[in-house]
């Protein structure tokens, strides 16, 4: 079982080019609605207590989850050439309750499988820990343990990757059914979706290099890269203060915007194309999306 990724990505680029407003305008609006709103919240004069911080972070997470669903709507409509607009980014709020319940269900299931796998994998690791005295073998065992946990988390996440699109197609199905249907659709197809997602790693590395470059510049200006205290706790704390300072956070995010204006819609539309291709292979037709 295989999907032609090159053709799928070509179609995604082709249909992105036909959007009005342009895809980069939608991506810019998405960044403003997510990262921009998060920055605005950081300037709100609120009491910096643990309770207030948890509350506002939870509120931002819920809000960003619904906006993310709106991006899925835009991507799906773009791939199906239904002429979406910027307002599709906020149409998820009409079914916000179902979106949040679905994402909560995905989170609980993902964490449940993850912890079960962690418990199972910890048994051979602890056996290795108590039977092997070589530091090299212990380090190798620890790296294999972590790699296995990462692989489990990725695999489980891919089970539920199509749930937002299934909810977009059938919002009246409720919050749980899209999760079960995603599991069924992804059975035997996780590797194909993983390869599609991994094919964007080059763009992600460009963003990482740009963001890291800004961070390293500020660390250099602070004299931390040439410090004689490198490796000490005081040096690490000083680095954290620089990395999480407002100028570094803002500039390291802004420098990635040009690439993100292309990457965010490109990846989203390609993923929507994968969903449509999977629907065609499983049932032969595409559903008519109801208005939200």
Question: Can you characterise this structure?
Answer:
The protein has twelve helices and no strands. The chain is an all-alpha fold and 292 residues long. Helix 3 (50-79) crosses helix 12 and helix 9 runs antiparallel to helix 11. The protein is globular. It has one domain (5-283). Helix content is 75%, strand content 0%. The chain has helices at 5-16, 23-43, 50-79, 96-131, 135-159, 163-169, 177-186, 190-198, 201-221, 233-243, 246-254, 257-283.
Largest pleated sheet: none
Helix fraction by DSSP (H/I, runs of at least 4): over 70%
Low-pLDDT ranges: none
Give me the count of strands: 0
Q: State the separation between the terminal residues, measured CA to CA.
A: 33 Å
N to C succession of SSEs: HHHHHHHHHHHH
Gyration radius (Cα, Å) is 22 Å
Shape: globular
Mean pLDDT: 87
Secondary structure tally, helices = 12
| Beta-strand content estimate | under 5%
Whole-number count of domains = 1
Structural class: mainly alpha
Task: Give the gist of this structure.
With 292 residues, the chain is mainly alpha-helical.
What labels describe this entry?
292 residues; mainly alpha; 75% helix; 0% strand
Secondary structure elements and pairings:
Elements: H1 5-16, H2 23-43, H3 50-79, H4 96-131, H5 135-159, H6 163-169, H7 177-186, H8 190-198, H9 201-221, H10 233-243, H11 246-254, H12 257-283
Helix pairs in contact: 1-12, 2-3, 2-12, 3-4, 3-12, 4-5, 6-7, 9-11
């Amino acid at each position: 079982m295989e999907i032609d990724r090159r053709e799928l990505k070509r179609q995604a680029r082709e249909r992105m080019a036909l959007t009005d407003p342009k895809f980069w305008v939608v991506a810019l609006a998405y960044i403003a609605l997510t990262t921009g709103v998060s920055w605005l919240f950081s300037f709100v004069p609120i009491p910096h207590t643990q309770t207030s911080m948890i509350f506002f972070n939870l509120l931002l997470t819920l809000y960003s989850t619904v906006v993310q669903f709106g991006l899925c709507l835009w991507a799906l409509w773009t791939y199906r050439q239904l002429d979406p607009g910027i307002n599709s980014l906020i149409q998820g709020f009409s079914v916000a309750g179902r979106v949040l319940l679905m994402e909560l269900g995905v989170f609980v299931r993902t964490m449940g499988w993850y912890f079960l796998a962690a418990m199972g994998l910890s048994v051979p690791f602890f056996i290795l820990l108590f039977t092997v005295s070589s530091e090299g073998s212990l380090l190798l065992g620890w790296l294999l343990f972590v790699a296995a946990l990462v692989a489990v988390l990725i695999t489980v996440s891919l089970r539920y990757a199509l749930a937002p699109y299934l909810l977009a197609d059938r919002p009246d199905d409720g919050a749980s059914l899209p999760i079960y249907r995603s599991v069924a659709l992804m059975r035997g197809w996780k590797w194909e979706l993983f390869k599609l997602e991994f094919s964007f790693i080059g763009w992600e590395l460009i963003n990482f290099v740009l963001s890291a470059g800004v961070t390293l510049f500020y660390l250099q200006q602070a004299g931390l890269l040439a410090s004689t205290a490198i490796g000490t706790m005081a040096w690490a704390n000083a680095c954290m203060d620089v990395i999480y300072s407002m100028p570094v956070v803002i500039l390291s995010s802004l420098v990635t915007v040009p690439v993100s204006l292309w990457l965010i819609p490109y990846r989203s539309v390609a993923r929507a194309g994968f969903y449509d291709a999977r629907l065609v292979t499983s049932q032969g037709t595409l559903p008519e999306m109801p208005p939200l």
